Amino acid sequence: MFENLLKTLDQLSKTTEISIPLAADLKGYLDRECPNEDCLFHFKVNEEDWGRLQDDASVTCPMCGHKAHRKSWYTTQQVQQAKERAIGSLQGAINKAMQDDARSFNSRQPRTGLVKMSMRVSGSGAAVPDISVPIEAAEAMEMEIHCEQCSTTFAVVGAAFFCPTCGHNSAERMFDDSLRKIKVKMSSIAIVRDAIESASGKDAAAVAVRSMLESCLPDGVAAFQKHCEALYAKLPAVRPAPFNAFQRLRDGSDLWKVAVGSGYEDWLSTGELARLAVLFQRRHLLAHAEGMVDSKYLSNTGDATYREGQRIVVTERDIEDLSRSLEKLSASIRLAVAASLQ
Length: 342
What we know:
Blueprint: H1 3-13, E1 29-33, E2 42-46, H2 47-51, E3 58-60, E4 67-69, H3 76-107, E5 143-146, E6 153-156, H4 171-200, H5 202-233, H6 249-260, H7 264-267, H8 270-288, H9 295-301, H10 316-341
Antiparallel strand pairs: 1-2, 2-6, 3-4, 5-6
Helix pairs in contact: 1-3, 4-5, 4-10, 5-8, 5-10, 8-10
């Protein structure tokens, strides 16, 4: 009675794999996710670049640098979709076999007689498509990156520090991405304020906007420090830079004077450098004193805007001035280091 079903079950029992190809998005990217449970960073890689990886290749997370086998990078949603499609494929095969058995059984039943029997199978036996669509809920990636080391193209939301296929870490790109991220925050302030105010009220919106603004100062200074450390390390025969020296403008400038013959006062105007010194000190207050003004800050900056015991207020103009000066310094430092290496 169940010949087709038994045959199908026997075939399924011998099947070790069900192949479910993944579809690239409209730009030709595959969705990937870091398998490190503390990270789970979502990114995209060009389908052709991913396809060129060897079967035993190791892939690097663009965010945390975690390395794992290339088959370890399916996203949580892809895995769930694959399970659902695999179950659907099995159910479809079993359902189709049972429907075939039912038709065969019914065709053998006599048309007349006291007792009539028939078999009916509910459900669909239609084949389940073997294609997995890209993550629908993921927003379009804001930044596409082309690795200068291996030419892989990948995309992320936010910042990326490593190329997924070769692991290359570009100091210049990291710094540029950090400044771009700061500019994105700035351009999103009005949107964030309106959205949070509608959902949670004006107080919550004000706290969120203040937090966004204040995060830009440490983000910018940290990015500049890492950028300078990487460029400085390229120079031969220089003394090692002291810990976090490039978070301190005077110390950083002195290091560059010895290394390349020029310092910050050669690359920024007097007003720009004085303004940047204030912003660096305000970053220090946020990081180490909850933003509360102390006598050391007043002594170091001569800032008459505040009195001791007050709390600093970070404005959009502060972030614009910081970004502008850091971009100018970065461009000058890159040129000076390149000239020294020739």
